[in-house]
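RETRY 2/3 - previous attempt timed out on the joint model. Re-submitting the same 224-residue input unchanged.
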Amino acid sequence: GAGVSQSPSNKVTEKGKDVELRCDPISGHTALYWYRQSLGQGLEFLIYFQGNSAPDKSGLPSDRFSAERTGGSVSTLTIQRTQQEDSAVYLCASSLVRDSYGYTFGSGTRLTIV
Amino acid sequence: GQQVMQIPQYQHVQEGEDFTTYCNSSTTLSNIQWYKQRPGGHPVFLIQLVKSGEVKKQKRLTFQFGEAKKNSSLHITATQTTDVGTYFCAGRGSARQLTFGSGTQLTVLP
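RETRY 2/3 succeeded.
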């Protein structure tokens, strides 16, 4: 597609439930990133996928968070047993593998845990 | 781990005044990027700096990369209301992914 697509755009869920967030990157972009942005805060790195390499999971805050990328394209971020502190905007970005390119971000999923 | 600090956190200016935000890394960077996030929007890539001492301009925006490749700045000349938003620097060190600064939220008063 023309841009990075994320769904849903908004998600309200009860504490303790599991949620799945989806990211469809720009076609041809081999690198895919998930970041989290709390209200008025900066971007917190979560996970990075590059081609068929093992993902860099160093930013995942707990084992309740996991992500996968199928076929080198679409990615799903799963949060199990959600807690109120998980409320944030989850941003997905993709880029060409080379370091000279900037990230293209999706519009994000605003997750609210009630 | 790598840390990127950005100041100031907030800046209010009168339209027509200049604005500068500063970015400092705890480690030497291979490159640094700048992004703009409009209120309610997502970050949008502005520019990348790679070389020591590099200076790049985009209309009223001037970007600098320090000689030691550990700091950077963004300067806006004669701000306009369209410049409103949060400006983030993002540095790439040994890790492949970018580490973002905390951002500077710019308000331009008409």
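Chain B touches chain A at residues 6, 30-31, 33, 35, 41-48, 50, 88, 90, 92, 95-103, 105 (CB under 8 Å). Closing ticket.
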